Fold this protein.
Amino acid sequence: MPRRKRDPESDIGGRERLLAAAVRLFGAKGYAATTVRDILRAAGVTAPVLYYHFGNKEGLWTALVREGVSKLSVAQDEAMAAAGSAVDRIRGFCRAAYEMRRQHADSHRVIWEILSGPPAAAPRLDLSGEGARFIERLRALVQEAVSSGELRACNTLHVTLALTACLDAASGLRVYDLPGSDPGDELEGMMSVILDGLVIPFE
């Protein structure tokens, strides 16, 4: 009796296992060094399951990034809509972005690897628009804080970029392995250096 072919659609959890395996491997080995065979072995699925859900390795990478962008967008929406002052929401916005980077450290590391590497080696996915949207939304909060009188007049783009640099620095602190340093605490401290210097004191 001929062996029945396995239907990729019937592989329960195959899509999720592929995503989980890929993010671990991409984070550990890098995108270029991770092979389809590596991913299939780690996920415990066959090639047709990968092709059915994602088409190829690049499609799997694209799905990972889009899911991450979607989660980050939701976190940003919640931070912008939170109660409190504009400065409170600036801090919340940066905390939400840091927390997403912390929770998805492997994905974030690979994104930076691809963005900073040779263009020919990168999957065809334009992330510049998402980066610009992040800057625009954070800048809108800084402008709101200036307009409401919470912060003194300033170049809102420079403040936004400085806060973004704080976020990048906190996300990369594990590289330095500073004794007794907690990246979340350091982010709070760096934000305070910037924002407290702009606060308009009460008379």
